[in-house]
Amino acid sequence: MNSFNASEDDPDDVAAEATPRADQAKATFAHELRKLRTKKGLTKQEVAILLGVSFERVTRLESPSGGHPKLQELLALEQIYGVPVHMLINPGAQTSA
């Protein structure tokens, strides 16, 4: 089960439940977002504008304890950072050439 497609608004969503594996995946995702943003030389405010979300939303996405990204956000982040979605959610994944 992929913990990244959980709805923040649905407290009964099983994917939103905290598990050690989900917590680790979220921490890795948050760290990767921060790393990509700083590598691109972007501020959180600039990313927020590009995503069409608030500064606070970007802060939550970059926080291990923050919310889960929505599909639209993942697709926009893919464009902003030039990194495929699967590499955003699993940065250690290898792509086949």
Could you characterize the architecture of this molecule?
The chain has helices spanning 20-40, 44-51, 55-61, 71-81, 85-89. The protein is mostly helical and 97 residues long. Helix 2 packs across helix 3 (55-61). The relative contact order is 0.16. Mean pLDDT is 81; it is low at 1-8 and 10-15.
Descriptors for this entry?
disordered N terminus; single chain; 97 residues
Q: Can you summarize this structure?
A:
The protein is mainly α and 97 residues long. Helices cover 54% and strands 0% of the residues.
Unreliable sequence segments? 1-8, 10-15
Q: How would you spell out the order of helices and strands?
A: HHHHH
Sheet having the most strands: none
Strand count: 0
What is the helix tally?
Answer: 5
Backbone shape = globular
Q: Supply Rg.
A: 13 Å
Mean pLDDT: 81
In percent, how much strand structure appears in the residues?
under 5%
Topology:
Layout: H1 20-40, H2 44-51, H3 55-61, H4 71-81, H5 85-89
Helix pairs in contact: 2-3
